[in-house]
Each structure stands twice: as C-alpha cells, then as structure tokens.
Specification:
The complex is a heterodimer of chains A (113) and B (114).
Chain A: E1 4-6, E2 11-14, E3 19-25, E4 33-38, E5 45-50, E6 54-58, E7 61-66, E8 71-76, E9 85-92, E10 101-103, E11 107-112
Parallel strand pairs in A: 2-11
Antiparallel strand pairs in A: 1-3, 3-8, 4-5, 4-9, 6-7, 7-8, 9-10, 9-11
Chain B: E1 4-7, E2 10-13, E3 19-25, E4 31-37, E5 43-50, E6 56-57, E7 68-72, E8 75-80, E9 89-96, E10 104-105, E11 109-113
Parallel strand pairs in B: 2-11
Antiparallel strand pairs in B: 1-3, 3-8, 4-5, 4-9, 5-6, 7-8, 9-10, 9-11
Classes of the chains: A mainly beta (113), B mainly beta (114).
Chain lengths: 113, 114
C-alpha cells in the first residue's frame, strides 16, 4: 500500500516567521507531488506542485523535492494569520493518471499574530 | 483551470435513504474523481469516472453503495445509497483536465445522516 506521511501538528509559528511543512512518501516511482491548502469547512485548494528534484518557488511558497530521500516539503515565508489552515501533501497513487491521488493526513498550521 | 460546481452543497438525510450528488464542469474533461473526507480525516478516493465506461472503484468502495454515472464529458453523479451515520462526510468531485495538469476540486457536498 503506497503511503504519504505527514506530521499532523498542530504546527504553530509566529506571524512573519517561516513555516516548514514536511511530507514523506513510500513509492520511489512517484514523479509528481502536490500541496493543497484546506481552510476549515472548505474544499482543498491547490497551491503548489513539483515534478523535479530541487526547489520551486511561487511567491511566499517554496516546494522542495528530494527523490533520493523520498521527501517533499513546503516552506511558507513571512507567514500570515491567513495562512492558518490544514496543508495536505499528495502524490499519484498509480503510475498513470495524476488525478488518482493519495493524500497524507494533513498538517494543521496556526500562525499567531 | 476548469470551474467545478457541486450540488447540493450540504444536506441532512435520514438513515436508510439515498442521495445523489451532482458535479458539473464548465469544460470537457476526460477524468473525474469522487473523494470522501470523513470528519477530521484526509481525503480518500472512492472511484474514478470516465465517460462511456464503468467507474473504477477503490478498495473498500462498491458500486451498490456508491453508484456513479458519467453520461458526458462535463457531468457526473455520485449516489450514496442506504445511508447510515458512518456516511456522514464531505464528498468531493475533482477533475483532471489533461495528463499533465494537477487536479482541482469542487466545493464539496457536506452530508450528515441522522
């Protein structure tokens, strides 16, 4: 059974700090990874995806992928209270469609003013 | 990205009844997916729905309990049959627009069974 593991948190950081969210996965064949943000009572919203080893930056968000270590992370710089949400890491469950995703349990982030 | 609309957004149902959830997309998509998110849990894939073929169900989910229709490239339905309190969840539709794009979710249907 392929797995995606996340620390459930909660992770608490002060406003303006860097929040670091981590995810490990069991399938060495996984080629793409996705980070979703889910506010309480809302559906998941895609915020980042990464296919290649290294870093990918988009505004205050940076995704980092290390395939050798089977590790993917999300850094949020200058954290804001509005970033408080649950962050879900996901990877394809099968080799084909990216739509068939397996999700981690999510890390709850709390940014304190 | 595609705009995904789900109906109803929420419902409260009686035990033993069935509810059909609709998912409408504003563009043609090959693959549509139905997920369940139980309270405090992450997302679990129920099935993959391709137009013109039977849905493919994940382990632990069966067609009798969760029948799915996919009559065209913009629409799908999921029925939750013979509901029990354990079926109280958020049900989410998602789409894959092509093989290289990450998927997006509809707003979900929040279902409570009394």
């Amino acid at each position: 059974q392929k797995e995606v593991e996340q620390n459930s948190g909660p992770l608490s950081v002060p406003e303006g700090a860097i929040a670091s969210l981590n995810c490990t996965y069991s399938d060495r064949g996984s080629q793409s990874f996705f980070w979703y943000r889910q506010y309480s009572g809302k559906s998941p919203e895609l915020i980042m995806f990464i296919y290649s080893n290294g870093d990918k930056e988009d505004g205050r968000f940076t995704a980092q992928l290390n395939k050798a270590s089977q590790y993917v992370s999300l850094l949020i710089r200058d954290s804001q209270p509005s970033d408080s949400a649950t962050y879900l890491c996901a990877a394809p469950n099968y080799g084909g469609s990216q739509g068939n995703l397996i999700f981690g349990k999510g890390t709850k982030l709390s940014v304190k003013p | 990205s595609a705009v995904i609309s789900q109906k109803p957004s929420r419902d409260i149902c009686q035990r033993g009844t069935s509810l059909t959830i609709q998912c409408q997309v504003d563009s043609q998509v090959t693959m549509m997916f139905w997920y369940r998110q139980q309270p405090g849990q992450s997302l679990t894939l129920i099935a993959t729905a391709n137009q013109g073929s039977e849905a493919t169900y994940e382990s632990g989910f069966v067609i009798d309990k969760f029948p799915i229709s996919r009559p065209n490239l913009t629409f799908s339905t999921l029925t939750v049959s013979n509901m029990s309190p354990e079926d109280s969840s958020i049900y989410l539709c998602s789409v894959e627009e092509d093989g290289n794009q990450p998927q997006h979710f509809g707003d979900g249907t929040r279902l409570s069974i009394l």
